[in-house]
Amino acid sequence: MASVGLARVSGVARPLMRLVTMSRMPILQQLHLEEQLLRRTSDNWCIINDGTAPATIVMGVSGRVSELVNIQLVLRDKVPIVRRFSGGGTVIVDQGTVFVTFICNKNVVAGLQPFPRDIMSWSGQLYGKVFDRFGEFHLRENDYAFSHRKFGGNAQSITKNRWVHHTSFLWDYDVKNMDYLKIPKRAPEYRLARNHTDFLCRMKEYIPSRSVFTDGVIAALGEHFSVQPMDLQAILSGDEEFVPSTKLLSQQYLEEIVSSKESLEIIES
Amino acid sequence: MAMAAASSRLFWASRAAAYLRISTFPRAFATVLKDLKYADTHEWVKVEGDSATVGITDHAQDHLGDVVFVELPEVGISVSQGKNFGAVESVKATSDINSPVSGEVVEVNEKLSEEPGLVNASPYEKGWIIKVKLSNSGDLNSLMDDDKYSKFCEEEDNH
Fold it and tell me: Name one GO molecular function term (chain A) (predicted).
């Protein structure tokens, strides 16, 4: 595979990458921050959020709740559902999830075209430098896998001049939480109809600690960018008028889906 | 004629991919039609009088992969050249669609709500996205013709 833009740049000024590291930031707040940085700044950013609370289901922009989520379980247990501003599938995230997001200008990597597979290939190569020493790392059909078991899922949003690539890494997960999710119709081929427990794996089984992983990401970034740590408060103190499109779905909305689906089932029977 | 060639190529590519279990990406050439104008964000526009039909190019749909959802604007809104008016979602990604011209949206292709894959199967015909009443015919001067656009795509792919 051609190394697009990943060749080490020697003697040339590297583009600036602003780094924000957080811990246990609620995923709704993280996604609002990311969308704001995408749409309201012209800087390159890497956002790392080590864990999130509360446990939350996150869906892509066009996902259909009734096809992807066991709504009655969700209502019973009061699990929040967030609809993301970007594409991608559905995931349940919690304190065992580590999030890494790149928000970049279109021209920041030489030769990188602003299309989904090109960006996925670039990020896959970057993460390859982090993971190759821990296991048989693959970018498989838009997912990150050790051998054939997924440990990271991706979602992207591409605008005219910028793009965002975010990844939810499964450091650890609670098997019980997977019951909230249905197996999607558009599952990747390599899933081969496996259930969640056979399809997924935990990063903690492969990598010594979370900080080894996040430090590895920062080191890999440092090979191509000038990485500048940023204080979260400095970023948040401005642009009060931004209205994000990522939304928390209301309980009433979910209840309406259940009742409309039930009435549909009555009609069909 | 060009559309027939494009359709047969797409059909062959799909069949070859299914049979050989290989990706159809990248293809050697994307289809480019002569009577259209093109933006560097890979939208096309066909102008007839003060009416313009807009979609994304074959090059764009090829790079995007399977389109699973098209976010359509409302009839009556204004669009501006170079600004986004909607988005396409392919697996894992949303990509903005930027208007190549300025004006008012007079029609949207509602068929795409049920069949977003038309953007892949027929980007220049059945997969059109909006029709615009032009407010500034001078917009066309900053767009590429088919020859320039072909070269532009080749340069992008060759980097």
Answer: ligase activity
Find the domain containing B54 and state its range.
37-158
| Overall average pLDDT of the B16-44 stretch | 67
- The secondary structure of residue A190, as a DSSP letter, is G
pLDDT (average), residues A155-177: 93
User: Of B37, B16, B18, B11, whose CA–CA distance to B147 is shortest?
Assistant: B37
pLDDT in tens, A8-42: 455 667 899 989 999 989 999 899 999 989 988 99
Average pLDDT in the B36-55 region? Answer: 94
Chain A contact present for B53, CB below 8 A: no
**Cβ neighbours of A113 in B, within 8 Å:** 63, 156-157, 159
B-chain residues near A31 (CB < 8 A) = none
Rounded Cα–Cα distance for residues B25 and A259 (Å): 43
Q: Which of residues 95-114 of B touch A (CB under 8 A)?
A: 95-96, 98
Binned at pLDDT 50, 70 and 90, residue B116 comes out as: very high
CATH class in words for A14-106+153-183+207-261: alpha beta
Give the number of domains in chain B: 1
Q: In Å, what is the CA distance from B20 to each residue of A16, A141, A205, B15, B17? A: 43, 17, 35, 8, 5
CA-nearest residue to A163 within chain B is B95
Kindly state whether residue B130 falls inside one of the protein's structural domains.
Answer: yes
